[in-house]
Amino acid sequence: MARQKRTEEKFMTSDHNGRDKYQSQRIKQVTKSEFFHQKLHEYGLLEIAYAIESVKGEELAWDREALSISPTAWNKIIHRGIKPVRVFAHPWVLINVDRAVGYYQKLALVSLKSMINIGLTIARYETGRNKRPMDEQKARDVARRLNELISRLIESDEEIDPREFDLWRGMTAGSTAQGSWQNAKGDRMEDVIKGMIRRRIQNRGLLRTQSDDEKELHLKDGRLLVCDSEPDLAFYDEAHHILIAVEIKGGIDTAGVLERIGAVIKSLSRAKQENPNATTVLIIPRVSMTEQAELELTIHQDNIDHWFMAEDVLDQDDVRQRLFKMLGI
User: Fold this and answer.
1) I need a surface site. Which of 23, 45, 73, 232 has the fewest CB within 10 A?
2) Quick check: helix, strand or coil at residue 217?
3) pTM higher than 0.85, yes or no?
């Protein structure tokens, strides 16, 4: 009987571990998918393309030799009726169209790091955070190098389909996003949910101004949103009294869950001490919730007004809408 019981317990543990592994993989998949989606918007692939396509490229002086555009590549583009400004970098565009350098860098299928390695640092212009436009000499140097690469790509294709250019840029953006995913410090799920909330604020026109690092967002209703740590998200009124505190604990390793729960309770209890009427919110993966973790949260439920399962926030629109409503966004 004892042996049979141990065997049954072993199978039950194995089944439980299998479900946990399945749920862990599902949430990793959703988190990565949303991470890449956010990067698409962050890179501004569509917005920058539209801005470049609106440029009257025919009014620019295209000194092809000075711009390192090969005759073969130029002729292929012209014969297909494609506007050269859509394909080849021009110094005027790099200087005057915000983040245009990122468009051509991705079109050339090269990384920002590789540009640094040849002495052409463009990262601060690619992100749009540089306050000054690129100087003329650098714009010419960058345009020449990118045009050399783009010309080679065009020459290597027998026929050119304009849709290829979107694919080329998409491939570079995907590679960059993968690097960001692998190098992401801290909690990726936390970053994704924070990004989701920032995008909601921007898309609904609620943003007045924000800091360069996007950690402080001043909303049109007078509130300040701080995206930092302890708490991960905090809404303040104009007198800087805390209104809403949100903790996002995305780690799915059950071994460290009690430590994370302890940090959550400390952070949210401080918000309640500062303002007893403050709303406190916890977002945590269902898969990381052990019996002990649930017990700890129940004991300290006075400090936690609302719980959300991270899987539901990422997966279910109605849950996201409830969260957004609670945050007043």
Assistant:
1) 23
2) strand
3) no
